[in-house]
Design a protein that fits this description.
Blueprint lengths: L10 E6 L2 E6 L10 H16 L5 E6 L11 H5 L20 H15 L1 H4 L4 E5 L2 E3 L1 H6 L4 E5 L3 E3 L14 H16 L2 E3 H7 L4 E3 L4 H12 L4 H17 L2 H16 L4 H13 L1 H9 L13
Parallel strand pairs: 2-3, 3-4, 4-6, 5-7, 6-9
Antiparallel strand pairs: 1-2, 7-8
Helix pairs in contact: 3-10, 11-12
């Protein structure tokens, strides 16, 4: 019986050898993030942080991908998997105003920031697609290890908004953050490691072995010292403005949502008239494969 984790519809939670494994478990949806997943992920993080038999947390995705992003069906597709058990008109759920949208973004951001705030180290094991909302999760982790062929980026920046959790700047610096967000292009895991966006990258068939070996090595250190190290570095990030930026970035994302630019308006029109698949296809038309290929000279 878990103390914090009350539901496991969208995640899996196990503990082995001082390592808690949290698995995003919507493989049929490529682990797209919905409200339930955000709630259960937060609960799983608190469960692992509270347990005395856990020193390290490993975060991964089931199936082909780490996480393909936010589940846009409810936002743009005109349907939800199941209707809410309350009257939406009484709440901010419909994002009727700038403040409504910012309020909702801040609430979901608070859940993700548990990764940053909990005392124990979190390692993201990234394979397949790690896109949009997937990067919001991964880059809050203390360490990110990727498969060489993982695809990492924020294609939604082309028409949907800016990342509602902005850690790109702290991992990769201003120029590469702008390069990736201005175009929504993606990096391979191998190139992300070359740039320092992720700690390291391995062949996909070695990823589990390498991540588990690192987690096991870290777990040898006393949990109190791990917490000391993590929190010392994170306070440094806060002194560099990381936490203040998160508070401001929600409102920046709302500005993107309210954009009346042609690409943004076309996306909304396509989603309403033709469905999300067509909207995404048209949004990305003209960008080619969207893959950044680093100059290796």
């Amino acid at each position: 019986m878990n103390k914090w984790l009350k539901s496991t519809e969208t995640i899996l939670f196990t503990v082995t050898g001082s390592i808690a494994r949290i698995t995003l478990n919507r493989p049929d949806k490529r682990n797209a993030i919905n409200e339930q997943m955000q709630l259960e992920l937060e609960q799983a993080l608190l469960e692992a942080d509270d347990r005395r038999d856990v020193n390290v947390i490993l975060l991964e995705g089931a199936g082909k991908d780490f996480c393909s992003g936010y589940d846009l069906q409810g936002t743009y597709g005109g349907n939800l998997e199941k209707g809410p058990a309350y009257d939406p008109a009484l709440y901010r759920s419909n994002n009727a105003s700038f403040d409504d949208d910012a309020w909702n973004l801040e609430r979901s951001q608070e859940r993700r920031l548990r990764i940053f705030d909990i005392h124990k180290p979190v390692i993201a094991k990234v394979h397949g697609n790690c896109l949009a909302g997937g990067t919001d999760i991964a880059f809050l982790c203390d360490l990110v290890i990727a498969a060489d062929d993982a695809r990492i980026g924020f294609p939604a920046a082309r028409a949907n908004g800016t990342p509602p959790t902005q850690m790109w700047l702290y991992h990769i610096g201003p120029q590469w953050s702008k390069r990736l967000l201005f175009t929504g292009d993606v990096l391979s895991g191998a190139d992300a490691a070359r740039l320092g966006l992720v700690l390291d990258a391995y062949a996909a068939d070695r990823l589990e072995e390498e991540v588990w070996a690192l987690a096991t090595r870290i777990a040898l250190t006393d949990v109190e010292l791990l917490a000391t190290h993590k929190r010392a570095v994170n306070v440094g990030l806060e002194l560099m403005g990381a936490r203040t930026l998160q508070r401001m970035i929600a409102e920046a994302d709302v500005r993107g949502h309210l954009s009346q630019g042609p690409r943004r308006m076309q996306f909304k029109s396509d989603a309403a008239q033709h469905g999300l698949k067509t909207a995404l296809k048209n949004r990305d038309a003209g960008y080619g494969d969207g893959a950044i290929k680093l100059n290796r000279r």
